[in-house]
Write a structure and sequence with these properties.
This protein is an alpha+beta fold. The chain has helices at about 5-15, 55, 60-75, 75-95, 145-210, 215-250, 265, 285, 290-310, 355-420, 425-460, and strands spanning about 45-50, 100-115, 125-140, 275, 315-325, 335-340, 345. Helix 5 packs antiparallel against helix 11 and helix 6 (about 215-250) packs parallel to helix 11.
Length: about 475
C-alpha cells in the first residue's frame, strides 16, 4: 500500500475521531437575581459599563493622562501581557501535536571493511546515500486525547488573556483612587494651612493677653498646644501626600513631574459618568476575573477527556519516504525510491491504577474549578453590592457631615463670643476649634470617598477593555 494513502487515511480518521470531553454546563448563578436595593431597570442617562471606555468614564484630563501613561509603562501590566504571549505559545505547541511532524533530511555514509573481516576475504568499500521525508511519532488521536489537551491549552490561554484585562482594569481603578487621594490631601493641607494661620494669630493674642495680665498663662499654653497640634497635623498630611505620590509613580511606571490638582469642589460634579449596575447575570460576560475562572473550568473539563482517553489504545505512526542509493549520482535515479512504515500500538493492561488515579485527579480539579468559578461570582456580586451601598450611604453621610460642620462653625462663633465676654473659659474655645477642624477634614474625606465609590463600582462591574478609547 502506498504510504501516502496510509497517511491520508490516518489523517481522516483522526479528524473524525471521537471525544471523551464531558458536555460543558455552565454552573447556575450562585447569587440573587438582583443587587440589594436595585430593581434592575436602567435610566436613559445611565449607560452600561461595557459602553464606556475609561476615557469616556473619567472626564478629568489630568487623570486621563496618568492612566494613558500607566497603560504603557506599568510593570505589572507588562508582566500580564507577557504571560498572555507565553500562554499563546504553549497553546501553539500543544496544537501542533494534532498534525503530523514531518521533517526532511539527507544522509550519506562511506565505510571500508578489511579483508580479514569480509566474507569474500577481500577488502570492501561501501557507500549508502538517502534523502526523503520523515514522519516522527505521530499519534492517531482516535479517542480525542490530543484534542482534549489542545482544548485545555486554548482555555488556559483565554483565561490568561482575561487575567490581563483584570490587571488593566484594576490598574485604572488604582490610579483613579490614588489621584483622588492626592486631591483630598491637597485640599486637607490647604484647610490645615488656613487653620494654622488662624491659630498662630490666636496664640499671639493669647500670649499678649497673658503678658499684659489680662489672661492666665494656662490660656496661652492651651493656645500654643492647639497650634502645635495643627503643625503636627500638617506635617502628617504632607508625609501622606509624598507617600501617595510615590505610590502613584509606581503605578504609572515612570517618574512624574510635579503636578497640581483641582479642588474637589471643581471636579466632583463631573469627575465620572453615571453608569447602570445592571443585573448580576451581566457580570458573567463583563467581569474578566469571572471569564478567566470559566475558562479555567473549561480547561479542567477538557482535561477529564484526556484522562478518559488514556484508558484506550494509542496508535503512533513512524515512517519515511524518499530515495536511497549506493552511489550519490544515482540517488534520484529510476528505481531508487525507498520507504518504511512503522506503526505501533500501545494497549494499557496493567499500570498500577495510574489511569484511574489520574481520572480522579482530573475530576477533583474540575470540581475545584467549579467552586472557584462560583466563589469568583459571589465575590464580584459582593463588590458591586458594596460599591452600590457605599455610593448610597456616603451621599447621605455627606449631607449629615455638612450639617455637622455648619453646627460646629456656629458653635465656634458662639464660644468665642462667650470667651470674649468672660462667660466661658478658653478651654471651650479650644474644644470648639478642634471639633470644627475635625469636621472640615472629615467632610473632605467623605466627599472623596463618594467619588472613589463610583470608581469602585466601575471596576466591580468589569469596566470596559482598558485599551478602549485610547
Amino acid at each position: 500500500m502506498n504510504p501516502r494513502n496510509i497517511l491520508f487515511g490516518a489523517l481522516i480518521t483522526v479528524l473524525t475521531g471521537c471525544s471523551m470531553i464531558p458536555s460543558y454546563q455552565r454552573p447556575a448563578l450562585p447569587t440573587a437575581a438582583l443587587y440589594p436595593g436595585v430593581d434592575g431597570t436602567t435610566t436613559q442617562v445611565a449607560l452600561s459599563v461595557e459602553q464606556l471606555g475609561w476615557r469616556e468614564f473619567f472626564t478629568d484630563a489630568g487623570l486621563q493622562e496618568l492612566i494613558a501613561r500607566a497603560l504603557e509603562n506599568n510593570r505589572d501590566l507588562r508582566i500580564a501581557m507577557q504571560r498572555v504571549i507565553e500562554a499563546r505559545g504553549l497553546y501553539g505547541i500543544q496544537r501542533a501535536d494534532l498534525l503530523p511532524d514531518i521533517s526532511g533530511g539527507a544522509t550519506g555514509s562511506r565505510s571500508r571493511v578489511p579483508g580479514d573481516l569480509s566474507p569474500t576475504g577481500r577488502a570492501v568499500t561501501s557507500e549508502q546515500y538517502q534523502a526523503g521525508l520523515n514522519l516522527n511519532n505521530w499519534e492517531l488521536d482516535l479517542w480525542g486525547r490530543v484534542r482534549s489537551l489542545t482544548a485545555a491549552a486554548l482555555e488556559s490561554y483565554l483565561a490568561t488573556e482575561e487575567a490581563r484585562r483584570a490587571v488593566a482594569i484594576s490598574l485604572v481603578a488604582q490610579i483613579a483612587n490614588t489621584y483622588l487621594l492626592e486631591v483630598e490631601l491637597n485640599e486637607r493641607i490647604a484647610i490645615t494651612e488656613q487653620t494654622l494661620t488662624s491659630r498662630e494669630d490666636s496664640y499671639r493674642i493669647a500670649r499678649r493677653r497673658y503678658e499684659v495680665g489680662y489672661a492666665s498663662k494656662l490660656d496661652a499654653v492651651q493656645a500654643e498646644t492647639l497650634l502645635n497640634q495643627t503643625r503636627a497635623d500638617r506635617t502628617a498630611l504632607l508625609r501622606q501626600r509624598d507617600q501617595n505620590r510615590n505610590a502613584l509613580t509606581l503605578l504609572v511606571g515612570v517618574p512624574l513631574a510635579a503636578f497640581e490638582t483641582r479642588p474637589l469642589s471643581m471636579i466632583e460634579a463631573g469627575f465620572v459618568r453615571e453608569i447602570s449596575a445592571g443585573l448580576p447575570a451581566d457580570l458573567l460576560m463583563n467581569r474578566p476575573d469571572i471569564l478567566a475562572a470559566e475558562h479555567r473550568l473549561k480547561a479542567a473539563n477538557a482535561n477529564i477527556g484526556a484522562a478518559r482517553a488514556a484508558f484506550f489504545p494509542r496508535i503512533v505512526l513512524t515512517g519515511n519516504l524518499g530515495t536511497a542509493s549506493a552511489e550519490l549520482n544515482n540517488l534520484f535515479g529510476a528505481g531508487s525510491s525507498a520507504w518504511s512504515f512503522s506503526p505501533s500500538l500501545t494497549v494499557p493492561i496493567f499500570e498500577g491504577g495510574r489511569n484511574l488515579a489520574n481520572l480522579d485527579v482530573s475530576k477533583a480539579r474540575h470540581n475545584i474549578a467549579v467552586a472557584d468559578y462560583e466563589r469568583t461570582i459571589q465575590g464580584a456580586f459582593r463588590e458591586v453590592a458594596d460599591a452600590l451601598a457605599e455610593r448610597s450611604w456616603l451621599a447621605l453621610q455627606i449631607v449629615a457631615q455638612q450639617a455637622t460642620l455648619a453646627a460646629q462653625t456656629e458653635r465656634t462663633r458662639l464660644v468665642w463670643l462667650r470667651y470674649k465676654n468672660g462667660a466661658a473659659p478658653y478651654l471651650e474655645v479650644l474644644d470648639a476649634e478642634r471639633d470644627r477642624f475635625t469636621a472640615e477634614q472629615a467632610l473632605v474625606q467623605v466627599r472623596r470617598a463618594l467619588l472613589s465609590g463610583s470608581v469602585s463600582l466601575y471596576a466591580a462591574l468589569g469596566g470596559a477593555d482598558a485599551h478602549k478609547a485610547q
